[in-house]
Amino acid sequence: MSKRSIIILVALVVVGLVLAAVIAPLLSSPSRIADNAPGVWREIGPTPAETMQVVGAGSTYLVSYPRWHYEHEPFVLQGYALVGGGGENTMNAMVKHNTYDNGSDRLTISDKSGEHVYTLARVSR
To answer: What 3-state class would DSSP assign to 69?
Structure first.
C-alpha cells in the first residue's frame, strides 16, 4: 500500500467514526418529555390507581397528583425530566422526577431516593 492509500484509508475511518458518533444519538432520540408529558395519566399497578394531570404553563409544568397531595405543583424541565416538589407533608418536601418513555408512552414519577416509584399510562392529552 502506498502512503497516499494509507492516508485516504485513515481519513475515511476518521470520517466514519465522526459520523457514527453524531448520527447514533440522533437515531436513538432522547425522551421528548417537554412535548409528551402534558395530559392525564393513570397509575399502572396500584389499587386504587391514582390519576396525575400535567399541564404545560410556559417553562413550568403544573402537576396535580393526589398520591402525593399535589394540587398544581410547579415542575421545571431539567434535561429529560420534569423536576419539582414541595407541598406540605414530608413526602412532598423531597424532589420528584417525572420521566417519559418514548417507546411505551409511559410516564414514571419517582422521589429523589427512588424509594417511591409509580409508572403511569396516558389517559388523554
So the answer is: coil
Closest to 91 in 3D by CA, of 108, 72, 74, 66? 66
Owning domain of residue 13: 1-30
What is the end-to-end Cα distance of the chain in Å, rounded? Answer: 61
At residue 67, the 3 state secondary structure works out as helix
User: In which band, very low, low, confident or very high, does the pLDDT at 26 lie, cut at 50, 70 and 90?
Assistant: very low
- Which residue in this structure is represented by grid cell 404545560? 56
Mean pLDDT of the chain: 78
Number of domains in the chain: 2
Residue 76 shares a structural domain with residue 101: yes
CA atoms within 13 A on the CB side of 79: 5
